[in-house]
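User: Please fill in residues for this 698-position structure.
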């Protein structure tokens, strides 16, 4: 392998490349667009585009594409080659500023939630100059936002960029109040830890459920699962290590700061974490990481599963969204400082996050809602569906005394009066880190742990950024007009803690007692997609997004529709895959096995030596009855799907129907099939088993 420093960023049209290849004046103007969002004029864009094209061609690229993130959750690209015909029948390579800045594509096949009428099928892509262009598979990829003709967002990047602007605006107001006149911007930063499974490709290919749905819809538990805890941080198998090495190298070439890799809790489960960066770049990078994981796995005879719950009975895969805010010179606003002044500011930002998580717990839950993630949240492995904040003992004590100060006016008042005393430094790796908390403070950042492995991190960060922006707005409004800043700040923090302390919970989030306690505290427990989605359109949430110009009300309705529709589609595909597998493979397999048993039984009964037929008789009875049961349950599942057609339900009604009726019928069919698997001879079961899949990569 080449030296990392030599390969790093080689496929990126980075700042260094721009500096080297662009005339000074052009570079300066482009920087203004990147840093301050200034409009880029056509002449400048032409020069940039030309430099980009020359650079890309030197690196072997033949095509360019506007790379975007539609509501499908995966990235989209339509390639155009650089060729342009000349009059004498040759071609030259061309790429104009216009082609760089804006693209137009027939977008009628992307979900729009009704935003794009069929007569206006065009969608527009616009260059996000803050995220570097890069080369992937001989194609120059230009990160873009994707909008309708009317300017409505059709993607995940547009609202993310808008939410970053919102928090930037409000956080700067706060910094000014603390006397910071020099910072020109506040950005949010994210480091997403990505979990995934690797399974053998040959085995994967034999499982229609994995192929169609990304998860196993059937499968009895293997004799061994994750109970020995011997996989977590265990030695990485050679085949997996080779995959990781190639993945790292490809990620580094794309300027992605892949840093940590290790085995996870479940067998065949792994994790990759990059070093954090600006949120919209992190979102782009995470999409690329997921794409590369899948592509590179195949080269190693493996398949990378990004589904949130590929296997029943072992842990599913999530994504930890480590989030913070920092100034344009890189000062982390969630890092407690060395001076009392810095600490007061830190406490304000901390309290803003606590209040935001409490006020918008419904939106945070919705931001991670998907059919796949429903299998994790609320089960004993991922954070529960109840949103709460973990602070750690030191910080919890401080927050506690902020509140008590108001109540009792005791000694603590002296100690914790903000802006007067220095706070202790919090150990970043304190041992009491609570793994069951959905939203944990980890020293100098918050870790939002409810995301599913397959999620785009954009949704969660749109909510986080906007919710915190709103609380900062409220804080700034109050503080900007006060007489005595220190007193008002003190009161503000105390009031905030009093009002929002219900969201703070340091105990075991997996405990049943917490469910009851949370209910008493008035916290929401929204277990599934149809439970939480209606909250999206609540008045306070529409007010939040429209006020901060992150979504229009129309865009919100569209997103609501898309999410529900998507949920129904996924469950429909899963149900139909089960029916297909049951009819075409599983029942025939059970029947074939009974035939062998019946034949053996018949032959044995002909024998004069009176052999023992106990096994054949008992097993034949069992498998025949299970097979008949499979037939009935398959019919029943089919019935739930046909019945739906005549019900004329709206999208939410359909989603609820899928969750209650269809899911129940699926569970019943699965339990019969899994029981049959345990009765059947190994060679009769038509698919690789859980044991094969989980322990098959050697
Ligand atoms: P864990 O113990 O949960 O694996 P790590 O300390 O390894 O946590 O860090 C997890 C992620 O948090 C990494 O991607 C890291 O870059 C990221 N991170 C660290 N500081 C920040 C920050 N200020 N903002 C956002 N992410 C951060
Ligand atoms: Mg973590």
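Assistant: Residues filled in for all 698 positions:
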């Amino acid at each position: 392998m080449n030296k990392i420093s030599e390969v790093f960023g080689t496929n990126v049209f980075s700042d260094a490349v721009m500096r080297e290849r662009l005339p000074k004046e052009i570079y300066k103007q482009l920087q203004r667009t990147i840093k301050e969002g200034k409009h880029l004029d056509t002449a400048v864009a032409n020069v940039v585009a030309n430099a980009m094209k020359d650079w890309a061609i030197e690196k072997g690229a033949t095509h360019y594409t506007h790379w975007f993130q539609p509501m499908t959750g995966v990235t989209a690209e339509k390639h155009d080659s650089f060729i342009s015909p000349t009059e004498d029948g040759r071609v030259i390579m061309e790429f104009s500023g216009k082609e760089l800045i804006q693209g137009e594509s027939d977008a009628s096949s992307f979900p729009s939630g009704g935003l794009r009428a069929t007569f206006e099928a065009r969608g527009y892509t616009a260059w996000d100059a803050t995220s570097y262009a890069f080369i992937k598979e001989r194609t120059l990829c230009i990160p873009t936002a994707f909008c309708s003709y009317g300017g409505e967002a059709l993607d995940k990047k547009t609202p993310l960029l808008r939410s970053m602007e919102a928090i930037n605006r409000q956080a700067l107001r706060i910094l000014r109040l603390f006397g910071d006149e020099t910072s020109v911007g506040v950005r949010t930063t994210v480091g997403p830890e990505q979990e995934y499974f690797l399974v053998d490709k040959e085995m994967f290919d034999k499982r229609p459920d994995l192929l169609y749905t990304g998860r196993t819809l059937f499968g009895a538990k293997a004799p061994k699962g994750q109970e020995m805890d011997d996989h977590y941080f265990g030695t990485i198998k050679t085949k997996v290590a080779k995959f990781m090495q190639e993945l790292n190298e490809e990620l580094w070439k794309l300027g992605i700061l892949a840093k940590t890799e290790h085995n996870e809790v479940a067998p065949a489960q792994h994790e990759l974490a990059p070093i954090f960066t600006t949120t919209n770049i992190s979102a782009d990078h995470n999409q690329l990481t997921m794409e590369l994981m899948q592509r590179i796995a195949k080269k190693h005879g493996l398949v990378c599963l990004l589904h949130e719950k590929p296997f029943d009975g072992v842990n599913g895969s999530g994504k930890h969204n480590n989030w913070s805010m920092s100034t344009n010179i890189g000062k982390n606003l969630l890092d407690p400082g060395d001076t009392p002044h810095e600490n007061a500011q830190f406490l304000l930002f901390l309290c803003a996050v606590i209040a935001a998580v409490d006020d918008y717990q419904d939106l945070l839950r919705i931001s991670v809602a998907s059919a796949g993630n429903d299998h994790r949240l609320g089960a004993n492995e991922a954070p529960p569906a109840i949103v709460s904040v973990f602070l750690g003992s030191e910080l919890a004590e401080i927050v506690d005394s902020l509140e008590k100060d108001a109540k009792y006016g005791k000694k603590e008042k002296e100690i914790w009066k903000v802006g007067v005393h220095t706070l202790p430094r919090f150990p970043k790796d304190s041992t009491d880190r609570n793994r069951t908390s959905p939203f944990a403070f980890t020293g100098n950042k918050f870790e939002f742990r409810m995301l599913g492995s397959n999620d785009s991190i954009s949704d969660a960060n749109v909510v986080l950024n906007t919710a915190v922006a709103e609380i900062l707005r409220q804080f700034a409004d109050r503080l900007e007009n006060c007489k005595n800043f220190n007193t008002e700040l003190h009161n503000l923090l105390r009031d905030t803690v009093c009002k929002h302390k219900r969201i703070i919970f340091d105990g075991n989030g997996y405990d049943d007692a917490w469910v009851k306690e949370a209910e008493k505290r008035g916290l929401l427990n929204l277990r599934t997609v149809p439970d939480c989605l209606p909250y999206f359109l609540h008045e306070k949430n529409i007010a939040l997004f429209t006020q901060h110009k992150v979504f229009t009300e129309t865009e919100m309705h569209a997103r609501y529709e898309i999410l529900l529709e998507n949920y129904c589609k996924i469950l429909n595909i899963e149900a139909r895959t089960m029916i297909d597998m049951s009819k075409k493979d599983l029942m025939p397999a059970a029947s074939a096995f009974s035939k062998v048993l019946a034949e053996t039984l018949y032959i044995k009964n002909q024998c004069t030596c009176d052999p023992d037929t106990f096994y054949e008789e008992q097993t034949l009875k069992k498998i025949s009855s299970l097979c008949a049961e499979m037939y009935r349950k398959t019919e029943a599942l089919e019935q739930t799907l046909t019945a739906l057609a005549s019900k004329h339900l709206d999208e939410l009604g359909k989603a609820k129907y899928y969750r209650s009726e269809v899911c129940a019928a699926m569970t019943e069919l699965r339990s019969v099939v899994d029981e049959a698997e345990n009765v059947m001879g190994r060679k009769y079961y038509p698919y690789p088993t859980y044991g094969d899949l989980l322990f098959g990569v050697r």
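For context: The longest helix spans residues 553-606.
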